[in-house]
Records
---
Amino acid sequence: MSLLIVGIDVTIVNVALPSIRTDLGASLSGLQWTVDAYSLVLGSLLLASGATADRFGRRRVFQVGLAFFTLGSLLCSVAGGVGELIAFRCLQAVGGSMLNPVALSIISNTFTEPRERARALGIWGATVGISLALGPVVGGVLVEGIGWRAIFWVNVPIGLAAIVLSQLFVPEFRSRVTRRFDPWGQVLTVTMLATLIYGVIEGPSDGWGSATIIAMFAISAASAVALVLVETRRGEPLIDLRFFRSVPFSGAAVMAMLAFAALGGFLFLNTLYLQEARGYSALEAGLLTLPMALMIVIFAPISGRLVSSRGPRLPLMVAGLGIAVAAALMIGIGDGTSIACLLVAYVAFGIGFGLVNAPISNAAVSGMPNAQAGVAASIASAGRQIGSSLGVAISGSIVAGASVAGFASASHAAWAVMVGIGLAIVVVGFLSTSTRAREGAARMSENFVA
């Protein structure tokens, strides 16, 4: 249930963006922040939330996360301005950071028998696809029938029910060995990401050479350097930089960012294109993008089987090509582009994105000691959220200032960037799954244990 509301939130909010712009008078950057505030805060806090759950109890932290997410959703539904909406989206994200990684840990500890655990994780994974598929349609129905505020109402009863059910049925778990908090690592991570995203989003309006934007990029770079210096000196860092000595892990982190940058940018641009440039309603836009979500549902389990039988390289190659082909088809879109052409692009993107997650997760923990696999997976998950933020920020900046009539042509450069992202996934996927990369990861794991 927690994954359902967090997953739906990814696609349902995008469908409502044009209505939010009209009702609240939001600018394009305001719409970017409405999406990015959530993914930015979520990605920044994922690792800290895992350590908090180990220390204070996973059920307790899970329920607190549900409470924050539910409260944040309720407040979003009554926001009187775009600034309030962005602030309440941040509150949602604080709760969301306590849900998925903690819930996954609860499942792993509850189902100890391998076959039962595999079935439980299969249901968990299927929920991702279901939530992504439901988002556009449910969002379209709610926006058309009630208004954009209703997209946040749906989280409230589900969140409250999950709090009660977890109290009744979920046992409490605490880790015998807990990691220390790393406040400096956390502050530097948030500062680095927030200033980078701010610079990218506000650059077109403030001017790329303005003092504010230059200062944001300078602070982000300085924070990145400071983060490396701080984390290499801590015994229990927030981000263990030794992980990045593993080529498969580093590749997984890069591919996670790339894939979700493509997803974030694709959903953001496509929503504005369909509803504002083409004049489709929210429901019509949701139905048009449903084939993409269905392909994700179908090909996500296929990807898992391919990883098991053939290894991660094949699904990564096909995934990158699928994303590149979809973006290439969108480069030439205009106000009269046929629905058939759009549907082919949506299907291609859905196939590509559906195939990419399982091999990324596999590569993230490939060669890692079992004791470090959970932390490695969490870093990859944080990379997904950071990538989503960057995708929305970059694509929005490219089309900033475009009129409704000129939006389609202005978006061509952004789609070209996504073609590059898809091809980059192919290259990184090939390099990070080579025999040499796997052997290097194995040596790194032995040194890690030593």
---
Amino acid sequence: MNLGSPDSTDVKDVRNYLHEFLMDKRVIDYPWLFRKILVDGIIIGPRAPKSAEAYRSVWLPEGSPLIVLTKKLQLALQAEMDCPIEVAMRYGNPTMKGAYDRLMTEHPDLTEVILVPLYPHYAMSSYETAVEYAREIHKKYKYPFRIKTLLPFYEDPLYIGALAQSMKPYVDEKRYDHVLFSYHGLPQRHLTKADVTGNHCLRSDDCCSVDSVAHKHCYRHQVYTTTRKTAQLLDIPSGKYSVSFQSRLGREQWIRPYTVDELVALPARGVKRLLVVCPAFVSDCLETLEEMGIQGKEIFLAAGGESFTLIPCMNTQPGWVGVLASWLKTIQQGDTSLIANL
């Protein structure tokens, strides 16, 4: 299960997609009426044409990069598994109901479905909304099978190994001054809202380093953990990598530092050759290909940078496909250590 994309680059389709996405109460977590006024009255009007143009710059002959690459991942994983693999998106097509229906049509005696949200880190606007939506559709249409859900895998050694393997050819070339780990941003409010203790997240500068049960649902802690473990595995010196957050929406405070600010500041600090990786995504999409690969590159070079290299997402790399297959086979064998307790 992945995020989703518009059906085409037409402004109408982009507008419909943005409406479904932004009206999700876990994405913009304001009361419904205020959310509707904000989304339909303020955001979508100017944003839809700009987003449509951005999608056109990366659209593939087969369609949206995210959809195309997720379906290719499905085929690659299917070759490793003896059970059927289906694809669903949280927003747009292919739908969750469509995936369930196809499974039931082909396998009417189906008793169990393993849901794999393709989000390494927990956030209510990504992992949580995907899982809850899958459960809502399951309950609404009274499907007879049970659901098991894969946990966020931000620090799983197999995931870290696959991520490091995907980055290794670029890091091994040694032709870089710095590696920027750019993650999708979140409003700071989402962090404190997800804090089960009510008094840990953002209460101190080092809150992500202080052990807490809040870390189970703390996106910020989890992305820093992914970064640290991956950098260690690749032997990237501590002074040669950093974390930033992209895709900010609106004027409220989001997790800092912002990627756009870092891209401007890094050349002034002597970083001329930059590697960028976006580990919040396992499949390349608008946020990686256009926001970073086109806009980010332009910003960095205009600020005085000389070389900008975007490391592709893991997409369908054999190591990543093998990791997914290993997790699924482990769950099939009855191991519950990888299952979310929801």
